[in-house]
Amino acid sequence: MKKIVVERFILSTTLAGVCIGILLREFFQLGIFFVLLVLLLFTSAVLSAYVLRGERTLRPTLIILFVLSISIIFGLARSLQNEKKFELLRFGDQRVVLLGDVVNEPEQKEDYQAYVLRARAFETEIRCEEINEKVLVRVDAFENISYGDAHLVSGYLTAPSPFTTHNERIFLYDEYLKKDGIGTIISFASVEVVATGRGNSIQHYLFSIKSAYLKSIARFIPDPGASLLGGLTVGTKQSLGEALENDFRTTGIIHIVVLSGYNVIIVAETIMRSLRFMPLRIRLGVSTLAIGLFVILVGAGSTVVRAALMAVAALFVRASGHTAFGLQLLFLAGVCMLLINPALLLHDPSFQLSFVATLGLILFSQPLEKGFSWIHHRGFREITTATVSTQIAVFPLLIYLMGEISLVALPVNLLVLPTVPSAMLLGFITGVLGVIPFVSVFLAPAFGALAFFVLSYELLVVNLFARVPLASVSLPPFSLLNMFLCYVFLAFIFWRLRNVRYTKLLK
Description:
There is one protein chain. Helix 16 (420-433) runs antiparallel to helix 17. Helix content is 62%, strand content 13%. The strands form 3 sheets. Strands 1-3-4-8-5 form a 5-stranded mixed barrel. A two-stranded antiparallel ribbon has the order 6-7. Strands 10-11 form a two-stranded antiparallel sheet. The chain folds into 4 domains: 2-82; 87-199, CATH 2.40.50.140; 207-252 and 417-470, no CATH class; 262-405, no CATH class. It is of the alpha+beta class.
């Protein structure tokens, strides 16, 4: 029995240890000597376990300490290894010329577009050197930028700096960019294309599919419906426009247009429901495969991959009811992501919100579903419990990060989320049919009209609730300690709910 208990806590202990190691490096700047100290403690724990091998009651505790120690070492070591030195920072506020390759798909804004250039060489007024460093480049919105192009970029280098949001929160923009290996910015850059087709051929193919799909839906669905559909299916929320994006944020529904774990799980659950006649294992396997194909279709970016991993964990819980297994998958995904990029823990709000929302979905959805038993429609009851579970989980984190809470988020989510699968399915069919000769003339407009009807309803709900007085309220600064205490309180509530459920089962 104790062996089972220890195995259940291995991954959660590993995740905790990795996080502690990252935090120790972040806040206390601990180096290699601390690693040696932890290694000494780790060795002591092993020797203690060997000496006390006959004391069975101490074995679980020693194993947990063993795992925690080695996890702290890995977390701290990865943080040390992941730190980058940015050579171009020495030339801040100077005009430079960079030669490099476009390594991502350009991000479209209202009045400009941004992309990442991997610089291979740079030139100033007095020197010219080879280099291998990423730079964020901002250019005119109408500039023709494509993944894999080789560019000659000229402009003034600047270092990103923290800034204060309208809610008096300090956003560490420099650390946010550093997590992706970006240390400098060139705004209002002059760009000259010197070569094309230099990127990865698979990425080229994926981006071309995505581009063809977006052009296809734009032919048959007018804006802002087409922009909303692009956000729902492939995460291109930039084309929504600042005003509409603010409305989505005000009403607490912005998560549907940023390719969060929710969007990905919609794809999988739609397949799960359509394959109800098959055994559960086959349905889970097909749905997981569908998530993988969906990730590839939208470009397999790091944000999408993270959302997919979170969605797989939530899917297994919601489909099978095995909370413990879902938690193990979630913790495993968290450990892998943090070991790959430790900076995600503190400097990537997307990772933080996705992880916490998925954790809330796994822990609270089943206990809360019984409280919503008065909702007889199963699909609407699942959406209600999922919405409430995730809102409860992310509430303290949202207050800490943004200081703005939507008071209409729950009704808006309940009104909009049931229609999202239909909008995604109809829109996807429209986009696919639109690229097929002859078929696009007859079938694509019909499916496009149906998709536009659903999308118009969603936009209407968002527009109406965004105009409600006090739809969103700003809160005073919320400390990290207060957020921690809130999550301690939520953990206590979950513990109480679990104990009540187990007590009823024993009776």
